[in-house]
Amino acid sequence: MGIGEVIGQLFIIFAVAKLAGEVFQRLGQPPVIGELLAGILIGPHALGWIGGPGGALVGLFHDPALAQEALGLVLHVLAELGAIFLLFFVGLETRLSDLLRVGARAATVAVAGVVLPFLAGAALMLALGHPTLEAAFVGTALVATSVGITARVLGDLGYLNSLEARIILGAAVVDDILGMIALAIVTGIGAAGQVALLPVATTAALALAFTAFVAFAGTRVVRRFSCHLARLHIRNAPFVVAVTVCLGLAVLADVIGLAAIIGAFLAGLAFAETREQYALEHQTLPVYELLVPMFFVITGASVDWRLFLDGSLLGLALVVTALAIATKAVGCGLGAWGLGLRSMAIVGVGMAPRGEVGLIVASIGQGTGALPPQLFSVVVVMSVLTTLVVPPLLPLLFRGHAAPAPSTPLSADDPALAAVQDGRLPDL
Amino acid sequence: MGIGEVIGQLFIIFAVAKLAGEVFQRLGQPPVIGELLAGILIGPHALGWIGGPGGALVGLFHDPALAQEALGLVLHVLAELGAIFLLFFVGLETRLSDLLRVGARAATVAVAGVVLPFLAGAALMLALGHPTLEAAFVGTALVATSVGITARVLGDLGYLNSLEARIILGAAVVDDILGMIALAIVTGIGAAGQVALLPVATTAALALAFTAFVAFAGTRVVRRFSCHLARLHIRNAPFVVAVTVCLGLAVLADVIGLAAIIGAFLAGLAFAETREQYALEHQTLPVYELLVPMFFVITGASVDWRLFLDGSLLGLALVVTALAIATKAVGCGLGAWGLGLRSMAIVGVGMAPRGEVGLIVASIGQGTGALPPQLFSVVVVMSVLTTLVVPPLLPLLFRGHAAPAPSTPLSADDPALAAVQDGRLPDL
Lengths: 428, 428
Prior knowledge:
The structure is a homodimer.
Chain A: H1 3-26, H2 31-42, H3 55-61, H4 64-92, H5 96-101, H6 104-127, H7 132-141, H8 147-157, H9 163-192, H10 197-229, H11 237-255, H12 260-271, H13 275-278, H14 280-301, H15 311-335, H16 341-350, H17 355-367, H18 373-398, H19 415-421
């Protein structure tokens, strides 16, 4: 049948992802880095444990290339489900009411931290002679901040209640929304094939309208009708309905030309209103644990490390990484103007990690053919390095900084710390 | 890319499964029946909403037939994952210590309820001129009892603490093990291609050795080392390790020639020892909710209802169904000899539903080519009808029967009842 063989590959992906995650956590690094590196290692460009020409599948498809294509389809569908549940989970962590309560400070930091990296990244690519679409994708990949990693490092340091942490977390949320709109616009441009004013405006308007409608109307609908969910007869009805809406909005976003994950994020945002009532995050977490590592390993597996034997490409990756860190630090630091140099530096560095959001932009860019393999690999390296650099750097900036008086003791048993150690965002 | 299209099919499968489940629960029927019927309805043989020749995928595979094959591969991998997590969950519900504590009564009921249906089913098929392997598969499909549905009906009736309920639930667990060994043996025979004594003995010995080793040694290993699981650094480490072992044993079972789901069941059985400590069932449930309905819808979609326009096939399905109910009722009833006629009838009818286990046997038989499409459809109809007939029949047998004094009040808030309403087995 070939099914057993595919399940075998999924076992390898899952086991290797968790092993790498464990090793990297023990090294004090985010597990996502381990999952990516493991994917590069076991992928078809290195050890070839996954994604290679499928043995038994060849009988089904009569052609090794088509069998590999079919196996690749299975892996990419599972990776896409992983990305959908990742963004659904991030959406669940993001209350619209929290977003609206976020002050001018966080918004300023977010906007400055979006505009500067986008312009710098796109300008560098244009200066190097890349087409506008490629430049826009690289710029977009430089926009987003990975909320989970940032929150986690701050929690490990015991600085979750600091002013800087609140600004960073608030700004990271706004930043995610802006990054998603930018991604929607760039994806729309990619689908249209060229930069034409009307399609761009239409796509932008559609992205904004879809985002605003689902965020505001969806949130109200969920808030109003969520009490009725418990009346359904099927088991775990609220979770089941939330997942159905998540998949439905992902498909709808895909149909109207946006990225599927944007729909999933908005579904999460709408159900964030009712997440505590029905323990939605708690129930989403096991699905997350199963599928999200598959996304990162399969993303890693598509990186052809041999591209970096080309010295100029490695140089480009390091230049883009330096630009990604510098522009985010300067942009966000300026947004935190008036808080003192140390706080500006903390906010700037804390906003630097791109993590999974950069990778999602990269994989969408590659999937739609907008990003050539070289730039895809550059963006993946940038996402990995900007994330790797923060856990060692942030503690140095906090050294000697008076620890904030925590509202609750940050012991190992503290739920807020536990939440952050789990990589979840605390309510601000 | 075609990925969006596949995600769209997954959304349709999930949404339709849950809608059908809700409708059937409101009708007082098990949701699994709704999921199956929904699958038949939206499958390629009826409405064609899923599994048909994939539009955008055709571009990737240059041939509509190959594109449909690739889409089918994705759906079957997800269905297989659903079956794996279903049996992992059933394993988690089944403590080896509970199995060993089950009295001679439950064992007698189980053995009598396995031998009689197997012999009768196989004999009927042989008498109708079918080959030995087909006869053995049909006999095996008649062996198993669907624990979840039985437990659920008893819980809805408030008879969970009755003597009959305890015998049924204990026997159903033993029955599951016997059915799995039978399936392992039959699958082994199917893989060997013919009935030869040495391969059969080897397969049986291998199945028994694998089952006994993983059940006994695995259980001890988990009991001994589970306290160390909390020391791992990755999030939800016990759940992650259990899922890794589940996928690993599924692949191992597949490699040594058993069904993958047998490995998943044994993994569940081993981790049942530590399920409360780490809330493993609680964490497996969301994955179950996501993947298991896909198994039933996709299984339903592979039923070609047009086969039943053939009157003789419909007749055969009804004869096999009657045989399945009668032999289980007589075998299990005789096993409950001495408890009075009403109790014997309750035990006999309560053991009748084949549910998902019959379907798993059918899909394995079809997947390995051992069951031709006609007999596959016959077994599916038998599984559906034996399950459909019990919820209305069992209450009639209990009518006027003194309700047992429950050890805890069976209110809607009662955790035992809630567990059963969720379709989970209570600890006896």
